[in-house]
Amino acid sequence: MSRAANVTASGAAHLLTSAAASLAAHGIESPRLDAEVLLAHCLGVSRNALVVEVAAGRDRALPPEVARRFLDLIARRERREPVAYLTGHKEFWSLDFEVTPDVLIPRPETEHVVERALAMLPPAGPAPVRVADVGTGSGAIAIALAHERRDVRVLALDRSAEALEVARRNARRHGVEGRVDFVRADLLEPVRGPLHVVVANPPYIRRDEAEDLMPDVRDWEPGIALYDDEPEGILARLAAGAARVLIPGGSLVIEIADARSDDALAHLASTGLWRDAGVAPDHAGRRRILIARRSA
Fold first, then answer.
1. Integer Cα distance of 282 and 5 in angstroms
2. pLDDT, tens digit (0-9, with 9 covering 90-100), for 66-83
3. Bridge partners for 251 per DSSP
4. What distance in Å separates the CA atoms of residue 169 and residue 89, rounded to the nearest whole number?
5. Rounded distance, CA 2 to CA 22, Å?
6. What domains are there in the chain, each with its CATH number?
């Protein structure tokens, strides 16, 4: 589309139609949705409000600076930069999270980790329920758990100092900063326990699978959060650390790759440290969430 021509276009509806067509021509999977989200972001309104306005035929005129900003974002999206990085926000567990290129973009399937962890937390009592979130990234899992249960105290761990800063800001945003502690760490190495639950969305993609990823993921999201470069696989070291810090009967809840779910279960069984191990599906039926309890 002609960027210069559209800066002076009549209004939002025209720009949306033109931008969506351009995104579609560049192979974007959801061109209209992405264009609506980006224009709503530039206008400082919700996407729903913008959609209703356009559907009602109220084609607001856009200030040139808003139109230019929108078209710049569209050009970046055409290069497959993720919408969440363009807006700086992503919804997870009905909460608004800041995201930057230093963190993995929270995904709907990871909400299953939160669901399963909440189901496995012990009942509320006089003492805090202690949880570790390994590879916290934006803090999405840790903050969702603390938001749901006021008796939960979370230790949020990550190797990336930049990711931890994003997570701290998200904890402040949602009022749980007093119950989430952030520590720069490699998996669970500095943790001494005892913990009731360990949750994680660790890197589980092999480097030789990178070409199978969408360019939005492969070219933009942080490799440290995507790729499992450990010879034996990160699960082995993560599970060993969890077994060390969990109380007997404590729970392990990890997002994994469907293709390696059987191997994950076999590994847990081989250690003799776990019971009631299983893999729960996500909404698409993929075996996604590894669950186990620490043996006595």
1. 45
2. 999 999 999 999 999 999
3. 197, 293
4. 12
5. 10
6. 3-79 (no CATH), 89-294 (3.40.50.150)
